[in-house]
Amino acid sequence: MYPNGKFDQGRRSFLKNSGMAGGVLALGPLAASVAAAGAAATVPPKGKYDFDKPHNRIGHDDVKWDAALRTEHLGHLVAGMGIADMDFRCAPAITAALRKRIAHENWGYLDMGAPGPIAFKNGLIAWNRKRYGIEVIDPDLLGITTGVHAGIICALRAFTRPGDKVLMATPIYNGFYGDLRYTKTVAEESLMKYVDGRYEIDWEDFERRMTPEVKVSILCNPQNPVGRAWTREELNRYGELCLKHNVIVISDEIHCDFIMKGQKYVPFSTLENKDVVANSFTMKSGSKSFSLAAMKCAWFFSTNPKLFDAAIEMNHADLNTLGMISEQAAYAGGEGWLNQCVDYIDANQDFANRYIKANIPMIKVGRKPEGTYLSWLDVTAVADRIGAKKLADEATRQAAGSGARLGQDYSGRQAMVARKPVTPEEMVGHWFAKNAFVQLNPGNTYGYGGANHMRMNVATSRKTLTAALDSMADALKKLA
Ligand SMILES: Cc1ncc(COP(=O)(O)O)c(C=O)c1O
């Protein structure tokens, strides 16, 4: 937390930039015109919970806002729209349960065989059955860990050896590349096709890459960053190909709740072919659905004891008491909040997509994302206009002059590491931060096919989203 003075300053700047000074929203001229011209679908839905009121996160050491201010050397920010968490106050049921446990004022080790952890596991099974129709989770083949990354790293350690390849349809969530580094495995990237405004797997290329060195494929379902909610047909094809070529599927379903209207989340474990399902390992967590990333609680399951046993052996993780309590409370009492939140995100995705198409000609977007609260922006024209390539080359030259830096090596240890070349997408990111006071994620970090793109997170109040889009549109207008 910042010392009070700085926090207050951050709060004032947040209110000013979110258009909320004095508690009154000042809609930008562009937003007003879009709101007037837009269909009713873009109006944020109302309900029991207030997602409309901007919630100031500045001063709490969060990546999305504070790190953006720090790393971009900014005095204020209209919106942090990078890392995948949400700006909303969490479901009240979570806060109530945490308050109750905190009142006990003792933080000893948790007994994993006690009624609490057992009820937690049973609750997960019941939630997955009721909400998604997943019938196959056996409590003995359900593991708890400290995050989806921790689980994926266990699975990769169990299913691969250093040097083995991991097949992914790209662009794909950048965190997977970190998991590969930790396990010394190598990415085999199959570039997706862009067809009629949405991404599809290039099946011929995907199968062609299934050489004997490929032991695992990481599937992101629904897909971060391109927002696909894979159909049953696509998942069947994915699963059958992997089975045929002895490639184990790790299905990361952390974004499963953010499914837009007219789309569907198909859990990989509900595919009809039992052999396909037995060739898979599913990772899930409430951390995206209820924005509980800081609570470090995730789980995995497989119908195949061989896969599960191999992975659990690599999992040296206890259940975090606060993580368990928050997720348990979320599943027990947060469904109404979640449903309203997903509707709110759906309307935000609709709004952002229409807004950009109508008002920001230098940014291209495809169809409205089918899933996730992320939007994938083609910023080729912005990169060209600001000379991002040249700026990146110059920044790389300058950084090279300052030698190696202290960072993390592949095993996470502090070490002197070589500076990576600065990318044009990073320069586009700096440009938006400095000129629109909006932070986005550079697309090149999402692997092959990510160049000339930025990822934008719309899980925020409509007011903040509107202010951010207005600010981006205004900044780009000055460039034109
Ligand atoms: C697809 C995907 N998997 C995993 C994670 C990280 O999960 P965790 O924080 O539980 O390790 C993210 C976070 O953005 C994600 O988008």
Low-confidence stretches: 1-9, 18-29
- Specify the helix fraction band: 40-55%
> Strand fraction band?
5-15%
Q: Any idea what the radius of gyration is?
A: 22 Å
Structural class: alpha/beta
Number of domain units = 2
- Ligand set: pyridoxal-5'-phosphate
Within CATH, the superfamily of the largest domain carries the name Aspartate Aminotransferase, domain 1
Task: Write the CATH fold name of the largest domain.
Answer: Aspartate Aminotransferase, domain 1
Could you walk me through the main structural features you see in this protein, from its secondary elements to its overall organization?
It is built from 17 helices and 16 strands. It has 2 domains: 4-90 and 338-479, Aspartate Aminotransferase, domain 1 (Alpha-Beta Complex); 109-333, 3-Layer(aba) Sandwich (Aspartate Aminotransferase, domain 2), CATH 3.40.640. The longest helix has 25 residues, at 335-359. A hairpin with a 5-residue loop joins strand 12 (405-408) and strand 13. Helix 6 crosses helix 11 (305-312), helix 13 runs parallel beside helix 17 and helix 15 (388-401) packs across helix 16. It is an alpha/beta fold and 480 residues long. 42% of the residues lie in helices and 14% in strands. The two termini are 40 Å apart. The chain has a 7-stranded mixed beta sheet with strand order 2-10-9-8-7-3-4, with helices on both faces. It has a 3-stranded antiparallel beta sheet with strand order 11-16-15. Mean pLDDT is 91; it is low at 1-9 and 18-29. It binds pyridoxal-5'-phosphate.
